[in-house]
Amino acid sequence: MRFHPASIDGPSFKAGEIHRHLETAGFPISEDDCRRIIALAFGFSSWHELKTDIGAGHERTPYDEELDFGEVAARHHQCVGAVMAVTGLPLAVAHDLAEVTRFMGDPAAARARRTVPPKLRKSLGSDMVRHIETDFERRARGFWRTPEELGINLRWARERNGWAPY
Predict the structure, then answer these.
(1) Residue 33 located in a structural domain
(2) Is 66 among the domain residues?
(3) Which of 1, 14, 34, 62 could form a disulfide bond with 66, CB atoms 3.0-4.6 angstroms apart?
(4) Kind and range of the H or E element at 34?
(5) Contact between residue 70 and residue 137 where contact means Cβ atoms under 8 Å apart
(6) Is 129 exposed, middle or buried, given 0-12, 13-18 or 19+ CB atoms closer than 10 A?
């Protein structure tokens, strides 16, 4: 299944976020491998093929929030496979990292939907509002795990299961 983004900006950002996540977690990876993860997750064989496709005039594929659960689950499965194919990460860690590759819509428009309504702000208090909005932001950007949490999961996989990267 192919995802046709509107521009190369989104895929480039996601490749950079994967790189940052893995580097911070203590898993060195090249930027080329990060771009390859994104290309495979989007249904292409290479970054070059993805970039060429963007210039071919395809209409943008619907974002995850525009689809039903089954289609989103199929996309996620494809993303997990891309992460595992390039990195050799164990399944549980690949699931967490695959969230970074999600096919989300316009971050600015989505941010407006992720703020706590003014009426609730007063009753919740500033600390709770900050926590909720930070959680909204992390999830909307695909970060179910922070890089630090991902690092903990990687160390656990190494120690408990004897997993080692390629």
Answers:
(1) yes
(2) yes
(3) 62
(4) helix 31-41
(5) no
(6) middle
